[in-house]
Amino acid sequence: xxxxxxxxxxxxxxxxxxxxxxxxxxxxxxxxxxxxxxxxxxxxxxxxxxxxxxxxxxxxxxxxxxxxxxxxxxxxxxxxxxxxxxxxxxxxxxxxxxxxxxxxxxxxxxxxxxxxxxxxxxxxxxxxxxxxxxxxxxxxxxxxxxxxxxxxxxxxxxxxxxxxxxxxxxxxxxxxxxxxxxxxxxxxxxxxxxxxxxxxxxxxxxxxxxxxxxxxxxxxxxxxxxxxxxxxxxxxxxxxxxxxxxxxxxxxxxxxxxxxxxxxxxxxxxxxxxxxxxxxxxxxxxxxxxxxxxxxxxxxxxxxxxxxxxxxxxxxxxxxxxxxxxxxxxxx
Length: 332
What we know:
The structure is a single chain. By secondary structure, the protein is of the alpha/beta class. The protein has two domains: 7-94, Rossmann fold (3-Layer(aba) Sandwich), CATH 3.40.50.2300; 100-327, Rossmann fold (3-Layer(aba) Sandwich). The chain is built from twelve helices and twelve strands. The chain has helices at residues 14-27, 83-94, 113-126, 143-147, 157-160, 169-175, 198-210, 230-233, 246-258, 278-285, 299-304, 316-327; strands at 7-10, 31-34, 45-49, 66-70, 100-106, 131-135, 178-179, 182-185, 213-218, 237-243, 264-269, 289-293. It has an eight-stranded mixed beta sheet with strand order 7-8-6-9-5-10-11-12, sandwiched between helices. Helix 9 links the parallel strand 10 and strand 11. The longest helix is centred in the first third of the chain and has 14 residues, at 14-27.
């Protein structure tokens, strides 16, 4: 059910009402004004004027709704000084999610998880979808190096950690470096961001409001019993990548437990030198086999020469990516 009221402001200050209403009009957000002491209505964001603190503070109610204090307290916004910050927030909450979010995660290392994530994003652009690719590894050195855009201008995770007031979706999307039409949010030598960090959730949420498709290159730590599940819960579907040997099959089976409540598909890197087949791995972990990712000859050497995932247009990486994209409903 869609909420009738998107923003609610509790105040008796008509000048504050006028300022907030103008910002709401710019953000395309409906505003309801509540008298001092009033209870919060159902709304996406609650704006509580604490310069006249009558009634229980809305922030202290423990609601899952986003609450912003105005005028009082260390965390409060002050108008007109913080008008741009409040406008950014209202724009963010007033723009509905439109993207399909695909998470890609490896059950083991060294199976081409990041390369597959990049190819899925690249193929989504080829299919006519505005697409963002997000580096979810907090310590990977930067996905932009794999793509060859590490010297391109645009914010990385370390830059976003200093931002205050949320991320306007279209502005964030336009600011990111582009790789074959894909907007890339990456870590760099300064580091990435942990998937459980508030900044990570806010940035990904903003991108889901500006793009048709968001591909998340996720770290294996999410698959542990105590792993942060926030990034997984943002996904419409998850692609689990593993190898074609006994250890990789066991790792995939363990990962499948963590993905039990999500729509998940399996990609197997193989075949291996043993007797295990990709279908055997799929049976062991109970996930549908979306594609077999065969080794791409001289891929690593190609990256060192400046090639990026998908540049070999007839290579097995692109072939597997097309199968996966079709399986998740995003094929051309």
